Amino acid sequence: MQRVADLTVAELRLIIKETVRETMREVDPDAGLELSDEMKTILSQPEPVEGRIRVQNLAASVGLKWSV
User: Fold this and answer.
1) What is the CA radius of gyration of the chain?
2) Are 56 and 47 in contact (CB under 8 A)?
3) Is 49 domain-assigned?
4) Mind listing the pLDDT tens digit for each residue in 41-51?
């Protein structure tokens, strides 16, 4: 078995990338769960409460489209 200290930077990066990909493929523990009525109300408010950002605006800011 190889030690981390013996790996090149490229080999370590590859291991990290593979680990992240594997983790992303795992099932989301929240998949299939429904939002509470309170959370739906908060997310659908036309004006954000001070200090909050509407999820649609947050998604748009990173190039995503959000739909409820």
Assistant:
1) 20
2) no
3) yes
4) 877 777 656 77
